[in-house]
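Re: export button greyed out
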Amino acid sequence: MLQIRGLKVAYGHIQALHGIDLDAKAGEITAIIGSNGAGKTSTLMAISGLAPITGGEIKFEGQTISAIPAHAITRLGITHILEGRQLFADQSVEDNLILGGYSRIGKDKAAVMAAVEREMDRFPILRQRRKQQAGTLSGGEQQMLAMSRGLMSEPKFLLMDEPSMGLAPLIVQEIARTIRMLKDSGRAILLVEQMAAVALGLADRAYVLESGKVTITGTGAELARDPEVKRAYLGG
Amino acid sequence: MEYLATVAILIALYVILAASYNLVIGYGGLATVAHPIFFAIGAYTAGLLAIHTDLPPVLNVLLGAVAAMAASVTLAASSLRVSGDYLLIASLGFQLGLLQLIRNLELTGGPGGLSNIPSTIVGAARTPIFLAITIGLAIASVLAIRAIVQGPYGRAITAMRDEELAFTALGRNAMTMKIVIFAIGCGIAGVAGGIYAYYFQYISPDQFEVLQSAQILTMVVLGGMGTAYGPVVGALLLLAIPQAITFLHLPPSIMAPTQGIIFTTLVLIFLFVRPAGIMGVDSSKVRS
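Workaround output, generated via the alternate export path:
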């Protein structure tokens, strides 16, 4: 579904990615793990057009997308759920969702509202919070809203950056369940996580990024058994 | 009465300026200090067309707005490619440079400005007619801006201002939206300029200095930035109160500093008592 070959990203003189290869298959969860500054977020940003690509190629369903501007990427069926959730804090839960489904607003308002209802069925807590300002939600609720907002455009391919960030362990389990549910509904997911155990538990295929390079790759289970991965990322 | 009416026309024009500046800076989050120059572009375009052509005044004012809009797109499209901070710097250069050009071109009358702008409306009804036009336009622009920011487009504008990255990640083009907001705001300032030229029949570069931005910004902040009616209240208060003391018949040497002191005192009071402005909602109180 997604092929990355020799991808390089640089911010001015700082090289974030030194040419990585990565494949994400349809219907699978692909995970990227690694420490801070390894280039995980840069990889997602490069795919969604938010980071400056200096080399290499990204193909989505056979089409080269490395040169497509960020706002047009969504239309291809890719949605990026950003790190730190980035909700529109002063706007209501409902408005946040509507903004996520924008590409249909104006054309078909009823379809947008139907999608809002669909997302509220997915996360019933959002229905209870419908008119509440997004900034007043709890961390877990905010993550659910961020996911829902991204799902409004019914993406085929979901980029998720640190969905567990700042959440209590119990909530992390709930988010993990949701991610698995999204996979079961047929979506491909590229997941970036610092919580390696959670990511590897979910992943069909996983990549370890270190200083902008892919160092280890394999299935989620293989990586979970890998002594190097265990030592560096799983605390054992 | 003539004097009061002129003050009212001036207030109405500043309501238009403050409301359009609020659209750009308060809703769009676009930092610019070039609002006076777009006011000037509207005024000079309409003024020059009135002097040199036989086009109808309404068309001249509209062409002034179009010129201001076109200039604003040039500024925004070039500087916003770099960053939002760059717009602030570029707008300062644009304001200073273009005003310097106006001050030195023969066409625009140099430092002496343009006089002899034909009076399109003559007779005793002139001032009342201008008063009606400017108040009508002020109401129309405030309501039009309100309609923009409270509709679905407004939801998107706020989202773009508050979380640009997420806004882009959701598939929207923030750049285009910024340029459009900037162009609308500056075009409205251009309309105010055209009316200004026709009413006063005389315009000079000194009336469009960069410091005007500070005054308009104060109106916006004091009234309530990012609120529909804040700029109206701000413009009224900041122009009416200093004007009111002119009736005390103080000598000019005392009058000017007194007006300055009133202006500054008002700003300081609001800074402490109502930081979000008169019409603004203090979010620190709502959240707690």
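Residues 174-200 of chain B form the longest helix (27 residues). The button fix ships in the next patch.
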